[in-house]
From TrEMBL, chains A, B:
One of its GO terms (biological process) is 'de novo' pyrimidine nucleobase biosynthetic process. Its EC number is 4.1.1.23. Pfam families: OMPdecase. It catalyses: orotidine 5'-phosphate + H(+) = UMP + CO2. It comes from the Bacteria. The keyword Signal does not apply. This is Orotidine 5'-phosphate decarboxylase. Residues 17-252 form the Orotidine 5'-phosphate decarboxylase domain. The lineage of its organism: Bacteria, Pseudomonadati, Pseudomonadota, Betaproteobacteria, Burkholderiales.
Length: 271, 271
């Protein structure tokens, strides 16, 4: 099943627009998981099992694995997700950006090695940094408007009366998405910009980081980004779920589940 | 030694502006190296030994390793280079682009895991996608103008009367390079644009892909990009050297050495 169809099915099956980000920071893992690569696998798969009926996608951030030389654990986690929860899409967040033969190697990494349903990519090198991914019939999620302070350095530069990020949205909508495989990254900290992107791209899915630990406003985000069907978004939360402070009687996975459920409900209240 | 000083020393010691790219495509390796991860290590280290006195840097492209799950071989190659040819800088070509805590994980990957002297990064997410690298006192090589057809999709958009890539050059020169650790990627296929970037960034080093297999003009590139000292560039060639067709009596490493020497001389003829 292609990424967009799989995402649509997961939105419906779990009544959820919540994407759970997997950023396993060794310094923040519960004590029983620290210090060994296998601990990363056990932590992430416990989080997956605790939240798989509440999420529309899981998004591992490859940097946390790469820094530790733990790509093998990411392979195991990906295989586990495909086996145990095959209806939930896997988004590899690697923000790759390269061209031609090199981009094809990155596509192999994402789709063949990790079995990802979609991968994040940077638009800076243009169409031929996205085109090689299309061959796989999976998803390509292009950076458009990011939620960090420096995001405006380039993305907000004015080009023909419009900020650069809107040109990126237009390029993807008009040209790069010819096979219907694309989505966009738009940060939650700028709801008016989510609205502008939504107006440009129709029903294209948006991956929206920035709620939870990064402080984005859920209501404003959902109102700005929802499609007529009340979907169209993968609203990501990573640290607020992974490292939720357990309340009385909870362990880390129960705390993660509680925060995931609260977040899902907070999103659904405004769909 | 920091990256810029090490690069200056390598330019002088080898009288060379040639950067040798390491893109080990399993389908193109000589038969004796195919099919095993160890073959990648042996191929790359034979190329390194055959060209280390002719190069100012080596630049492994991480996508080729990532596609095969061969990061362990890249660790071995990096360690080999540091041990055998410690005066030649290692540039990790990974074009990472992320922010804050995630960018810091990528910096750990590049500098701690692989021991890279410099790493390529994408500017699309702005200053806070570059800042986390600064802590390491190594090199950060920012994508500016790339040599691929789609490079113009974003980089040539006009912002205040100037193309976007010139804004990136200005941003790096004026703000991001406050510690003197930055360089820029500027493709060889547009010599006039190399000239424009050189005028903006003073003596900042430029990493210039696009000669060799990609067809860039060496004379025009060197005349456009050289500094007053006749240096300032890492002119990259990957496939033309790695997969040079052996002439009578040569093996692949001798052929690579011959092409590297020819390229070094062709560059030096115009410095």
């Amino acid at each position: 099943m292609n990424f967009i169809n799989k995402l649509n099915a997961a939105w419906a099956a779990n009544d959820s627009l919540l994407c759970v980000g997997l950023d396993p920071d060794m310094d923040r893992l519960p004590a029983q998981f620290r210090g060994t690569p296998d601990g990363i696998f056990r932590f992430c798969t416990e989080i997956i099992d605790a939240t798989a009926d509440l999420a529309c996608a899981f998004k591992p951030q490859i940097a946390y694995f790469a820094a530790l030389g733990a790509e093998g654990q990411l392979e195991r986690i990906s295989a586990y997700l495909r086996h145990r929860h095959p209806h939930i899409p896997l988004i590899l967040d690697s923000k790759r950006g390269d061209i031609g033969a090199t981009a094809k190697q990155y596509a192999r990494e994402a789709y063949d090695r990790y079995g990802a349903d979609a991968v994040t990519v940077s638009p800076y090198m243009g169409a031929d940094s996205v085109e090689p991914y299309m061959e796989w019939q999976r998803g390509v999620i292009v950076l458009c408007r990011t939620s960090n302070p420096g995001g405006s350095d380039l993305q907000f530069l004015e080009v023909n009366g419009k900020p650069l990020y809107q040109h990126v949205a237009q390029l993807v909508a008009d040209k790069w998405n010819s096979n219907g495989q694309c989505a966009l990254v738009v940060g939650a900290t700028f709801p008016e910009e989510i609205r502008a992107v939504r107006a440009i791209v129709g029903d294209m899915p948006l991956l929206i980081p920035g709620i939870g630990a990064q402080g984005g406003d859920i209501e404003a985000t959902v109102r700005a980004g929802r499609t007529d069907a009340g979907t169209g978004m993968m609203i990501n939360s990573s640290r607020a779920i992974l490292y939720a402070a357990p309340q009385a009687g909870e362990d880390f996975a129960q705390a993660a589940r509680r925060v995931a459920e609260e977040t899902r409900q907070a999103i659904n209240a405004h769909r």
